[in-house]
Design goal:
Distance between the termini: 12 Å
Helix content: 25-40%
Radius of gyration: 14 Å
Strand content: 35-45%
Order of helices and strands: EHEHEE
Oligomer: single chain
Structural class: alpha+beta
Largest sheet: 4 strands, mixed
Strand order of the largest sheet: 2-1-4-3
Shape: elongated
Length: 76
Amino acid sequence: MNDLLAPDGRLVIADISFPTRQAFNTVRQAAGDPWDDEPYWIATDALPALEAIHAVVAYVQISNCAGIYQLTRKKG
C-alpha cells in the first residue's frame, strides 16, 4: 500500500457497506425478493484484508447500509 500513495495521501471509498455479516443479512432479509447478488463490503471482513496489505484504515458506518473507508500509508 505504501508504494501506491503519496506520503500524505489517502484513498477514500464510500460505498454500500455493512459493519458485520449479521447486519448485512438483516438488511438483505428486509429487502426481500428485489435483492441482487452483488458482492457488498462487510467491514469485519474488509478491515483485516486491507490491513494485511499494510494500509492504515479508518471506517465509519454512516447509515444501516453505507460506510466510508479511509486508507492511508503505514508510517515507517
